[in-house]
Design brief:
Low-confidence stretches: none
CATH class of the largest domain: Alpha Beta
Distance between the termini: 27 Å
Order of helices and strands: HHHHEEEHHH
Number of strands: 3
Mean pLDDT: 93
Strand order of the largest sheet: 2-1-3
Strand content: 5-15%
CATH superfamily of the largest domain: Iron/manganese superoxide dismutase, C-terminal domain
Number of domains: 2
Shape: globular
Helix content: 40-55%
Length: 194
């Protein structure tokens, strides 16, 4: 079973860039739902293994992929946000960003543009791809689709409408631009260590 992470900041700490109302809904209702549904699916899978009844395995495996991926990505998203923290990557990560994207502005521009065009229910991620030995930006639809196996998520932006609609309505660009003011680069830098 998995547990919800405790937010490392207060519910209003990301104001004005991320409203307390949106964060409360996003964390306490939607993220909790992914965790609860993941745990329910894990329990049903455990029961199927004990009884040998795998008649519902297709549905259970699909649910585990969807809810489990949602729980994991939400955890990463909430952890890579924060207030009053360093506003730039570590020297090591900045060097890799410059190597792989040319410079920080190129990386940021690509990330912003990729986030803008994520399908309605999806994510934008900066990932480390060990087999490529480089950073890449991915768009992930419906949590589990369009993944790159073996990559390590470093920076995660939730692009599902529930993550911004209450505050930013249909203005995805304003939400994406606000995100850059609340990135917890300490967490991103920690994830980058390879």
């Amino acid at each position: 079973m998995i547990k919800m992470i405790k937010l490392p900041y207060s519910i209003d700490a990301l104001e004005p860039y991320y409203s307390a109302e949106t964060l409360d809904l996003h964390y306490n209702i939607l993220y909790k739902g992914y965790v609860d549904n993941t745990n329910s699916t894990l329990a049903m899978l455990d029961n199927a293994r004990k009884t040998g009844d795998f008649s519902n395995i297709k549905c259970l495996e699909k649910n585990l992929s969807f809810f489990g991926s949602g729980a994991i990505l939400h955890q990463l998203f909430f952890e890579n946000l924060g207030a009053d923290i360093p506003v730039k990557p570590s020297l090591k990560l900045m060097k890799q960003i410059s190597q792989d994207f040319g410079n920080f502005d190129n990386f940021k521009n690509q990330f912003v543009e990729a986030a803008k065009v994520v399908e309605a229910s999806g994510w934008c991620l900066l990932v480390w791809v060990p087999i490529f030995n480089k950073l890449e930006i991915l768009q992930c639809e419906k949590h589990q689709d369009l993944t790159l196996w073996g990559c390590k998520p470093l920076l995660v932006l939730d692009m599902w409408e529930h993550s911004y609609y209450l505050q930013y309505k249909t203005s995805r660009p304003n939400y994406i631009n606000a995100f850059w003011n609340i990135i917890n680069w300490n967490e991103v830098n920690k994830r980058f260590i390879y």
